[in-house]
Write a structure and sequence with these properties.
By secondary structure, this protein is of the alpha/beta class. The protein has 2 domains: 114 residues, 3-Layer(aba) Sandwich (Rossmann fold); 72 residues, P-loop containing nucleotide triphosphate hydrolases (Rossmann fold, 3-Layer(aba) Sandwich), CATH 3.40.50. It has 9 helices and 5 strands; from the N terminus they run E-H-E-H-H-H-H-E-E-H-H-H-E-H. The chain has a 5-stranded parallel sheet with strand order 2-3-1-4-5, sandwiched between helices. Helix 1 packs across helix 9 and helix 2 packs across helix 5. The chain is globular, with a radius of gyration of 17 Å.
Length: 199
């Protein structure tokens, strides 16, 4: 039987992390997280880290070769060309990790692939179905400003760096509303797991 691979995505601050935790804790599903792989791609002394430090130097250098991810984020979210450069560096490394981990875990019946830029990075071929954790754009902005202590302008720059939720809604196989509380979110996730997608 083919492995079921749920590509879990959403906009920034729409609730992907909460949804993935619910799938892991309540349903025992293993997660592969693109954000974790992206962080590992920029660990000290890695080729990714060396490339970033060579390009930006002291602007993003923290202590002992560690990259200041907040400073890097500020740089790339305010400059589309720099964001593109960073994505061209990191996305292939993330893809390699997904390929390796999926090969290693091929016997597991159902996997969750948490990929914030699932559509933008063209990684839908890794998945058998795509789920979008969705909310209203106004909720998204409020959550992002509160979570990351950002100004409205900084929050808007970050949401603008991703495809709009309206566009992602048309691409997803399943749209999971996260406009209410975590229990409502959990119920929708359980229902989507139960229903599945017809191949």
């Amino acid at each position: 039987m083919a492995q079921r691979r749920i590509g879990l995505t959403g906009g920034i601050a729409t609730g992907k992390s909460t949804a993935s935790q619910l799938l892991e804790q309540r349903h025992g599903l293993p997660l592969l997280d693109a954000d974790v792989f992206a962080r590992q791609a920029l660990e000290p002394e890695s080729p990714g880290s060396e490339a970033v430090l060579q390009r930006y130097g002291e602007q993003v250098a923290a202590k002992s070769g560690v990259i200041d991810r907040r400073a890097l984020g500020t740089l790339v979210f305010n400059d589309p060309a720099e964001r593109h450069w960073l994505e061209q560096l990191v996305h292939p490394l993330v893809r390699q990790r997904f390929d390796a981990e999926l090969a290693r875990l091929a016997a597991i019946p159902t996997m969750v692939l948490v990929i914030p830029l699932l559509f933008e990075a063209g990684l839908t071929d890794l998945c058998t179905e795509t789920w979008l954790v969705d909310c209203d754009e106004s909720q998204q902005l409020q959550r992002l400003m509160q979570r990351d202590r950002l100004s409205i302008d900084a929050a808007l720059a970050r949401t603008a760096a991703q495809w709009p939720l309206a566009r992602k809604r048309t691409l997803a196989d399943v749209v999971i509303s996260n406009r209410s509380d975590n229990e409502c979110l959990a119920q929708q996730l359980a229902l989507a797991l139960e229903q599945g997608i017809n191949p």
